[in-house]
Design a protein that fits this description.
Radius of gyration: 21 Å
Oligomer: single chain
Order of helices and strands: HHHEHHEHHEHHEEHH
Strand order of the largest sheet: 3-4-5
CATH superfamily of the largest domain: P-loop containing nucleotide triphosphate hydrolases
Structural class: alpha+beta
Strand content: 5-15%
Distance between the termini: 41 Å
Number of domains: 3
CATH class of the largest domain: Alpha Beta
């Protein structure tokens, strides 16, 4: 599989000044301090479950990293479609993808086109204000069949009530509620739910993100 350095070397061989300018722009990402993506992956991307973690990327590489991950996911969806397989794509801290114009636009394309290709995207975030501040979020909501809401802060509740046409009676299910309580939106149906997941199970031990419980596990 070619890497960025191979493209850089080929550009240097070209006589056109445009090629030299592109090569100069790539140099930082090929041999400079931002060369983290100029390598072949050591991850088996054909695994049934693949997790991409870009948390430790610096600010300058964060956007590039998000774009590379989105492109990789789209390629996987394309391959799976040819094999008549569905692809589930979960994005945590989704508001970060909507902060950047390019990754936000890519996300909208995913929401609009994935279903036709057998893809099932799911966005997860706690930062509702940041999410709804994006110009692209309306396109994403319009192409979402399923929304699950847990307890919301007062400011977020007001924004969501307007955005999703939630009645005051329904909003009480995401107002000062306990863990595992909230609202499910599925098509035209709004359904309150209470999930008392048993804590004395192996599945709960694996899934919990509470620091005090993770330490015990």
């Amino acid at each position: 599989m070619p890497i960025l350095g191979d493209l850089y070397d080929e550009l240097l061989k070209q006589p056109e000044p445009e090629a030299a300018r592109i090569a100069a722009a790539l140099e930082l990402y090929v041999s400079g301090s931002l060369n983290v993506f100029n390598h072949r992956t050591n991850v088996e991307l054909s695994n049934r479950l693949v997790c991409f973690d870009i948390k430790q990327l610096g600010k300058q590489l964060k956007k590039l990293g998000m774009l590379i991950v989105q492109d990789q996911v789209w390629n996987r969806v394309t391959v799976n479609r040819a094999e008549r397989k569905s692809t589930r794509y979960f994005m945590d801290e989704f508001h970060l993808l909507l902060k950047e114009e390019q990754t936000a636009a890519y996300s909208v394309e995913i929401w609009k086109r994935f279903r036709k290709w057998g893809g099932i995207p799911t966005a997860i975030t706690q930062n509702v204000k940041d999410l709804l501040a994006s110009r692209e979020v309306e396109n994403i909501f319009e192409n979402s069949d399923f929304v699950l809401m847990l307890n919301q802060a007062a400011g977020d509740r007001a924004i969501l009530a307007k955005q999703l046409n939630i009645s005051p009676q329904q909003m009480k299910y995401v107002t000062h509620t306990e863990a595992g309580e909230g609202l499910i939106f599925y098509g035209n149906v709004v359904l309150p739910f209470v999930d008392r997941f048993p804590k004395d199970t192996e599945l709960y031990r694996v899934m919990t993100t509470k620091p005090e419980e993770v330490g015990e596990a």
